[in-house]
Amino acid sequence: MCFVKSEKFQEMELSTKDGFVIVDGKKIGSNGKFLSVEKYKDGKVK
Questions:
Q1: Which of 8, 19, 25, 27 could form a disulfide with 34 if both were Cys (CB 3.0 to 4.6 A apart)?
Q2: Contact 10, 45 (CB under 8 A)
Q3: Residue 46 in this model has a pLDDT that exceeds 80
């Protein structure tokens, strides 16, 4: 499991693509399961 300090997390670029949450160009998840969204499928989060 990976932990990120809140200051560093705030600096990361968050977005969604094809219904998945993307941080710094990579999907958030582990063990083949990824964080997904229902309402906003594509775009910048911040």
A1: 27
A2: no
A3: no
- Could you read off the pLDDT of 1-17 as tens digits, one per residue? 677 788 888 888 889 99
Q: Give yes or no for a contact between 29 and 1, defined as CB atoms under 8 angstroms apart.
A: no
CB contact at 8 A, 12 and 34: no
Residues whose CB falls within 8 Å of the CB of residue 22, separated by 6 or more in sequence, listed in order: 14, 15, 16, 28
Quick check: 33 pLDDT over 90?
A: yes
